[in-house]
Design goal:
Blueprint lengths: L8 H5 L5 H11 L2 H8 L19 H4 L4
């Protein structure tokens, strides 16, 4: 929300003036676990960014186009 990717919340909240929140949101978004979590149950976009079902940690290696 802080980066504006959800219903233009950043504009409504004037999030740009909160530089530490912006930095924190980017830092969290760059974490490997967050990146993996964003592809779970995703059915659109590039195939290597989709994981339709996740049942084990190895699914990230075997069921995506990586």
């Amino acid at each position: 929300m802080a980066l504006g990717s959800v219903y233009n919340a950043a504009e409504f909240l004037d999030a740009g003036k909160y530089t530490n929140v912006q930095r924190w949101a980017k830092d969290v978004g760059n974490r490997p676990a967050v990146k993996r979590g964003r592809i779970v149950n995703r059915t659109n976009g590039e195939l290597n960014e989709q994981l339709h079902e996740r049942h084990a940690a190895s699914d990230f290696d075997t069921q995506t186009g990586r």
